[in-house]
Batch of 2 targets.
Target 1
Amino acid sequence: MIITLDPGHGQFKNPGVLPGYYEGTRVFMLAYALKRELEKYRDTTVYVTREKLEDDPSLAARGSMAGKRGSRLFISLHTNAASNPEAHGVSVFYSVRRKDSKKLGRLLGEAVVAEMKKKTDITYLRGVMTRTQDDGHGGIEDYYGVIRNSVKYPEVEYSFIIEHGFHTNPTECGYMFRDESLECIARVEAEVIASYFGLEKTGAEDGYTEYTVAPGDTLISIARRYGTTYRVLAEYNGIKDPDLIYDGQIIRIPLYAEISVGDTVRIKSDKNTYYPGGKSFSAWVKNYDYAVKKTADSRGGAVYRNGDRCVLLGERIDRRTGEHGGSIDSWASVDYVTKIRPEK
């Protein structure tokens, strides 16, 4: 299933009532958190209309991206605003041309409300609705440009705008300003989508993901792809002879999502930058392991670069000797590194 997520607006658009809050920045973080959650499900491809935080494509371009990429589902993520600071609640808009999508819109809205209300006590579902305008030919069309342009493509069966509370309301703005809140919202939205479309988890929730052996694969080549060793994969999968794998065989890849200061990590072989949109690094960087120096900022909060949660790589470690050398001191996405399990 192909899904396109649209973090509304640009980096510094629509400030909230709390200093430093910008709708365009917070929903960007939410989009990538939701992307990570959705990609835990099999056969799910997720695109985001803003690859970099500073990106701000037009409304037409955002909606069209969903259709051009063959997306079945398009969600534009927002927080709301009003002149009255007491205004609050979650709103979901769906396309007048996709009336059957209202059910999924309501499920998403109710899930977000239930999660937000745990902390805010005030959030409620304002409505699941359409908003229309005259199409200039005696008919009506969707008012919102992102929805209007997405449903021009028949592939896009579901198109929504979700307003995750009001950034003009101090309580809801405060909720959306916390990284852990975005992670919670992403999780429940992904769960609703997965349940509605019958998506199955890859096994990542159990500490592993799965890879299907293709012609020409070896256990060594698969291990390199995931930044681990063939010995780890053989032990983890109960493979007695690492030279004997077959096409179509399912190989479980152990995941180590929780990374702590001092852990040893290895950069995945298929990654060429430190984080999405970050600078490229030289090939030699992948030849070493690294001791993690930091996992949080000075206030103890998670560190994000272009929507990806990052850790600070520290001392360089020689893989052959285990000796510690110089320091790299660069932030790397946790999705770009593998925590190394000591070999027996």
Target 2
Amino acid sequence: MTLAALGKKRMFMAVFQTILSTVILGVLYYRMIKRETPSPISWLQALVPVGLGAASLSVSFYVLIGVAALLNWLGISSGGAHVFVKSMFMAFIMAGAPEELTKFAAMIITIFLFRKKIRNVYEYILIGAAVGIGFTLPEEFLYGDAEAQAIWIRMLTIAGHMCYGILMAKHLGIAKYNKINDKPRFLQYVLAFLIPILLHTLYDACTSNNLMMLSENAAESDTGIILGLAGTAAHIIMQFVILFLVKKNTEKYCGMTLLQKMEAESSK
């Protein structure tokens, strides 16, 4: 196969992978939007965070450089550590920290833009899902693979960024709700950062940044492969659990109102 033909094939597969991702995530997001009570958000409020999530992908590369430079300046490294610890360290720098921090920034911008329209905690969750979807689509295009088998494997974990966003935004929304109702909120802010970054770092340490799989030691390499399969299976299950729990608790999160209380306070 010529280089030109190979290039065309990779472009076709990248486009196909992006379209397939858009369809799958679009259906999931549409169903989430329609479940909101008493009425769904506007399409502008639904689509703006998707665009901001897509834009955050390019920003994450600069954050990656910044995180790596900061850790180097602080003298923090994984030298001499166990190979899995090195995998965790690399995953934290390459994905866990920069990608979740840039998605957080996209969420904050969305919350600011629609600060007078966000009615409940569920709408925070929708923002997190949308930003995660937006981040995923250009990433799927950039990582488009010519091997069809790899595409189907990626489709099994396609809602990862969406679910990380849901977790982050849910805790941010609960923190806002607690603030309005004079309840403790510090723990919610901690969980908003800690859970997505930790889950993302763990998943990448088991898969894309798994240094054990590259080991020349056969036993260690086999352990790395098993770890990769286990991490992928856990990630797939995690997606279903998070999406199921959001669906199950939609009414609860819709009932955690924000706008009415804020309007009542402003009218005093």
